Amino acid sequence: MSPSFNSSNSLYDFVVREGNGVKGLVDLGVSEVPERYKQHPQERINKQDSRTCDAPPIDLSKLNGPDHEKVVDEIARAAETLGFFQVVNHGVPLELLESLKDAAHTFFSLPPEKKAVYCTGVSPSPRVKYGTSFVPEKEKALEWKDYISMVYSSDEEALQHWPDRCKEVALEYLKLSSKMVRDIVEALISKLGVALDDSKIEGLLGLKMVNMNYYPACPNPELTVGVGRHSDMGAITVLLQDGIGGLYVKVEEDEDAGKGEWLEIPPIPGALVINIGDTIQILSNGKYKSAEHRVRTTSTQSRVSVPVFTMPIATDRIGPLPEVVKKDGLARYREVVLQDYMNNFFGNAHAGKKSLDFARIN
Ligand SMILES: O=C(O)CCC(=O)C(=O)O
Ligand SMILES: [Fe+2]
């Protein structure tokens, strides 16, 4: 039997305000997706409308050998087209990837009151946040996802405030992925024909954050979404997905290969997904594309994913690199303070790549 909420507000209070999340709703035994979760038909994800991306993963260990230039080319090509690619031999041990998925399941299996202590306003640290959907107060339809978000400031702070069941593995993952992110950014910048010193490159990645996403099994995956269409706002995202699948990326309209087609990024055991964020699109004056992506849930199994987001610190300014603007003959984006870009990004519901309009020069 499905529980009944007297109004859409009481459902919202239960899921969002009281911190029960979608997991809490599923544990009550919902047999149908509530109205509040039903997406506009255009936003629903039809499995039949997409193909699987068959691009082989890029072997990052080859960056350190004779194939360096070839791998740099592969990375740049992927960033110019789909904005998404998978990597292997990335330096994060496979056992750690398994532990991360286990940690995510363990955390979200906790009783609601143990998770709700990390809700905004009561969390022991402003850098740790448990929540559901993306910006529930702004969304017409909620997303079928709970998450915990952990912003890095120091090891001590992380070990003190990040949840016990996640902190060690999340911290280790964040550190090991930082090296790969740096290598990828260096490769991308070199292909722009620009020399940036180490401190500038580090500056692009000054803020790092690990999330754990939990998508409970959903009675009607065809009516709702796990995550709606969006691009990530930062520089580079490293994403661990489990074996369930459901991550889709959009082929940009102006690509020859298909107009606005969605490709599923298949789970590859041991691989990590790399995704280009808005900051790199802006910095490259549009040469590299942030990837529009979304997530479908399944009716049979809960899915977890663990992204590491990297971006400049809030007070930094981001804009197209002057050398690239000179070569292109025009700037496609204005310079913006990252904090302003973030406020706009996190102040609106997911809406594809609309986030870039904030910096776009028309
Ligand atoms: O769960 C996924 O595969 C993707 C999640 C995502 O896009 C995000 O957290 O920004
Ligand atoms: Fe994303």
From TrEMBL:
This is Fe2OG dioxygenase domain-containing protein. GO terms for molecular function: dioxygenase activity; metal ion binding. Signal peptide: none annotated. Keywords: Dioxygenase, Iron, Metal-binding, Oxidoreductase. InterPro entries: DIOX_N, IPNS-like_FE2OG_OXY, IPNS-like_sf, Oxoglu/Fe-dep_dioxygenase_dom. The keyword tRNA processing does not apply. The keyword Iron applies. Its cofactor is L-ascorbate. Residues 200-312 form the Fe2OG dioxygenase domain. Belongs to the iron/ascorbate-dependent oxidoreductase family. It comes from Glycine max. PROSITE patterns: FE2OG_OXY.
